[in-house]
Write a structure and sequence with these properties.
Strand order of the largest sheet: 1-2-4-3-5-6
Largest sheet: 6 strands, mixed
Shape: elongated
Distance between the termini: 117 Å
Strand content: 5-15%
Helix content: 55-70%
Structural class: alpha+beta
Length: 262
């Protein structure tokens, strides 16, 4: 009986039908997988687009404005189109631009050598200083994102009281942690701000909330996009200061500033 069934053409047709059905199911499964993958890709693309849109909106909404009124001595602050914090008095005759990272030990050396020179020249009305406090050394701060948090705090402080910005910056460099040791906690940054006369609770919240973080990241990329590749990078009236003596000898910036004022 088995041999007769095996010779039956109907048996062959049944086997072919089974194989045909398997191929159809395989094709349907493959089509379903492709549809699911396409849907997943579309969902990811939409998610990325929404995230980008939200980041753009956040950046625009949280752009620091430095709206504090001028100090009694006329010292004012503003944000430049390069994202720098500009500190000076109306009528300043020259501009010094400092690109720096609060985790950068060489920036600390520059501040130790020339911070007082810059502060004095700002206070007497001769120059304005534009501080591009950027963030690219997070990897050197023991996972604490100190570069980013420090730059965010710089905007918070300048936004609250530009007249306190230079003293705060000097104090931050004086207490700069060693690379890789872990950055200062927010509480310490707030303590330094308080010690320099900034007591508004909104500043502490700005620091702990990382209010300007998106702007910090954007301005950092914008700065490096101009060809600057390290810190500190210093300009006087848009001319880069090239000599080590000017950058790191105590009072070294006095000569290029005086030259710019002539």
């Amino acid at each position: 009986m088995n041999s007769e069934v095996s010779k039956n053409p109907r048996g062959k047709n049944s086997l072919a039908a089974v194989k045909g059905g398997d191929r159809t199911r395989t094709i349907l499964i493959q089509v379903a997988v492709v549809v699911v993958l396409l849907a997943l890709i579309a969902a990811i693309a939409i998610s990325i687009a929404i995230k980008h849109s939200n980041n753009v909106k956040r950046d625009a909404a949280n752009r620091p404005a430095v709206t504090a009124p001028a100090a009694p001595d006329g010292l004012t602050g503003s944000i430049t189109d390069k994202g720098a914090i500009r500190i000076g008095k109306p009528g300043a005759k020259a501009t010094v631009r400092v690109v720096a990272d609060l985790q950068c030990p060489v920036c600390k050396q520059f501040e130790a050598a020339n911070g007082q020179i810059l502060s004095d020249a700002v206070n007497n009305g001769n120059i304005a200083v534009e501080y591009n406090v950027i963030s690219f050394l997070d990897q050197n701060s023991g996972g604490s994102r100190y570069s980013s948090r420090g730059a965010n705090a710089a905007y918070c402080v300048a936004d609250a009281d530009p007249s306190k910005f230079q003293p705060w910056l000097s104090a931050m460099y004086q207490q700069q942690p060693e690379e890789g040791a872990g950055g200062l906690p927010d509480s310490k940054i707030i303590q330094i701000a308080t010690a320099t006369g900034i007591t508004d609770p909104a500043v502490a919240k700005c620091i702990t909330d990382d209010k300007f973080d998106a702007y910090v990241q954007k301005s950092t990329q914008d700065v490096f996009g101009t060809g600057i590749n390290g810190t500190p990078t210093v300009f006087v009236n848009d001319k880069k200061v090239q000599t080590q003596d000017a950058l790191f000898t105590p009072g070294g910036m006095k000569a290029p500033i005086e030259a710019a004022l002539k």
